Amino acid sequence: MSKAVPVSFRLQPEINEELGRVATSMDRPKSWVIERAVKDYLELQAWQLAAIDAGIADADAGNLVPHEDVVAWVKSWGTDDELPMPE
Hints:
- The protein is mainly α.
- It has one domain.
- The protein contains three helices and no strands.
- The N and C termini lie far apart (46 Å).
């Protein structure tokens, strides 16, 4: 495992207080909570960017659902004649 690198940043006082409460309740140092939060955020962003890239690739390949089909599907929600999701 590589050695941790120190990073410095500023927090609003309210966020710092909440961070302290969370760290205390977890019996962990604030640095551990911050590292976990940053890791979770980066994983979420990586997933979202990959999903966006996949969507763009699908659109570029012509794999699209016409807008009118989606509108009709959504308008049918909750009715007796609910349409299946367009593909």
